[in-house]
Automatic annotation (TrEMBL):
Belongs to the major facilitator superfamily. Organophosphate:Pi antiporter (OPA) (TC 2.A.1.4) family. This is Glucose-6-phosphate exchanger SLC37A2. It is a multi-pass membrane protein. PANTHER family: GLUCOSE-6-PHOSPHATE EXCHANGER SLC37A2, MAJOR FACILITATOR SUPERFAMILY TRANSPORTER 16, ISOFORM B.
């Protein structure tokens, strides 16, 4: 009897349930990648909306009244353009922060497939509407602010829904590692968003929004057609399991649509009383402040300081997200092995502070130095952010004090990420206000936020260290 081909052997060695798990992990990865892909273009086109027009060759038939602003896009042709960019960022981020606190509550009570797919389709519409302003020759700041705010609200459907969906399918073993890999969708989305926007930024910047809008809307249709919310025969995330439990268990349970759950959804105040929720939420506020300031202002900083054109600055900024992928995976691995989520975050935050200082001082001393500093800063800044929003949120959403309540994960995730989103809104706003006084002051603000994020975890770090010293039971994974 002839043996099966190695590829077929590999495929058949996994159970049907394992393939369902892999399929769900891949789907949710793609879905949230498109969320970040559609957020990134605004940071790429800033340097196109306001340029140094004296260095740009103008058409011969164009009647120019102002040699310095003729190529800028009104209303961003004014001297306070950096403040206007800050306002534009905050219209999205403030709406996102406010909406996130309610999103988790809705996510616990509505079918995740409908909730997620509708949010993606609406986000695609609002992203495309921003880009259509280029073709419709809209120069009203209010139009762009309104579109950004509405997009911020509908984008809150994404994070609580995908975390809850993954949490319904995967066990606690190696949670930090698997979610560290899965959470790279944030950086992958930022990279793809930068590259796609960069293709059109110099020719027709409206397409920098329209194309990502089409992509996320198409992903929303795929979500509606294929997403399976949970495995109803068992909920691995809610089981007590050892640290060496396999991520893809070999049972043969069948994936079907979610049946009615009579467990009462947790209240907002009840979620806040879960040990660790407040500390990690406040830590994420400052960690996300740093991360989102880089997300929205890094391409402009590179263009201004290193004097790259908008496309090259956008392409170079993707290295920060490449570092973020590595940092998120390392944070998950280290925290799985040590059992110290808070200590892992705190250690990376401590190292990040001097690296941010060095990036500002020597980061532009040649291309190799710039690349190296972007990778290091991306890993150290995004590592704790990734760990808190994934593995930590899943840990707290299934805390032992909940006594098996399976309807707390989305609410806890929304509280943590919603609090972090306040920092995400404040960071770019402060950058817009401070940057006219010099980029050095922006980096001092980022370093201060990084230190505060570290201090807010001090109680939890102390508790984990005592556990390692034998004063309390040490938990792994």
């Amino acid at each position: 009897m002839r043996s099966l081909a190695p590829g077929i052997k590999l495929i058949t060695s996994f159970s049907r349930d394992s393939w369902y798990r892999f399929f769900i992990l891949l789907l949710t990865f793609v879905f949230y990648t498109t969320y970040h892909l559609s957020r990134k273009p605004i940071s790429i086109i800033k340097s196109q909306l306001h340029r140094n027009c004296s260095n740009v060759i103008h058409p011969a038939d164009l009647n120019i009244t102002d040699n310095d602003t003729w190529c800028d896009w009104a209303p961003f042709d004014q001297n306070n353009y950096q403040n206007l960019f800050g306002v534009l960022d905050n219209c999205f981020l403030v709406a996102y922060a406010i909406g996130m606190f309610f999103s988790g509550i809705f996510g616990e009570r509505l079918p995740l497939r409908y909730y997620l797919s509708s949010g993606m389709i609406l986000s695609g519409i609002f992203t495309a509407l921003f880009g259509l302003g280029f073709y419709w020759q809209i120069h009203s700041l209010w139009y762009y602010c309104l579109v950004q705010a509405l997009n911020g609200l509908v984008q809150t459907t994404g994070w609580p829904a995908v975390v809850a969906c993954v949490g319904n399918w995967f066990g606690k073993g190696k949670r930090g590692f698997i979610m560290g890999i899965w959470n790279s969708h944030t950086s992958v989305g930022n990279i793809l968003g930068s590259l796609i926007a960069g293709v059109y930024v110099s020719s027709a910047w409206g397409l920098s929004f329209i194309v990502p809008g089409i992509i996320i809307a198409a992903a929303g249709v795929i979500c509606f057609l294929f997403l399976v919310e949970s495995n109803v025969e068992q909920e691995p995330l809610l089981r007590n399991s050892s640290s060496n439990e396999e991520i893809f268990s070999a049972n043969t349970s069948t994936a079907v649509e979610t049946v009615e759950d009579h467990t009462e959804a947790i209240s907002f105040c009840g979620a806040l009383r879960i040990p660790g929720v407040v500390e990690f939420s406040l830590c994420l506020l400052f960690a996300k402040l740093v991360s989102y300031t880089f997300l929205y202002w890094l391409p402009l900083y590179i263009a201004n300081v290193a004097h790259f054109d908008p496309k090259k600055a956008g392409d170079l900024s993707t290295l920060f997200d490449v570092g973020g992928i590595v940092g998120g995976i390392l944070a998950g691995l280290i925290s799985d092995y040590s059992g110290g989520r808070a200590t892992t975050c705190c250690a990376m935050l401590i190292i990040a502070a001097p690296m941010l200082f060095l990036f500002n001082k020597i980061g532009q001393n040649g291309l190799p130095t710039t690349i190296g500093m972007l990778l290091w800063c991306g890993a150290l800044v995004n590592g704790p952010y990734a760990l808190i929003t994934t593995a930590v949120s899943a840990d707290l959403g299934t805390h032992e004090c909940l006594r098996g309540n399976s309807r707390a994960l989305s609410t806890v995730t929304a509280i943590i990420d919603g609090t972090g989103s306040i920092g995400a809104a404040v960071g770019p706003l402060l950058a817009g206000l401070i940057s006219p006084t010099g980029w050095n002051n922006v980096f001092y603000m980022l370093i201060a936020a990084d230190v505060l994020a570290c201090l807010l975890l001090s109680r939890l770090v102390y508790k984990e260290v005592r556990g390692w010293c034998g004063y309390t039971t040490r938990l792994r994974g």
